[in-house]
Amino acid sequence: MVNVIRSIKVSLLRGALGAIALFLLISVYTVPAHAAGKLVVAVLTCDATRYREAHRTFVKTLTANGYDQSNLDIIVQSPNPDPISWANSVRKAVAIGADIIVTYGAPATLAAMRETEDIPIVFVDVYGPVETGVTRNMTITGRNMTGVSSKVPMITLIKTALEVKPVRNIGVIYNSREIGSLVQLKEIKWLAAQQGFAVFDMNVSSVAGIDMALNALPSKVDYIFVSECAAGSKGFQKIVYRANEYKIPVISLIPSAADRGALVALEISPAEQGESAGECAVKIFSGKKINQIPISTPKKIDLIVNLRAAKTLGLHIPFQVLSVATKIMK
Question: pTM (2 decimals)?
Answer without folding.
Answer: 0.87
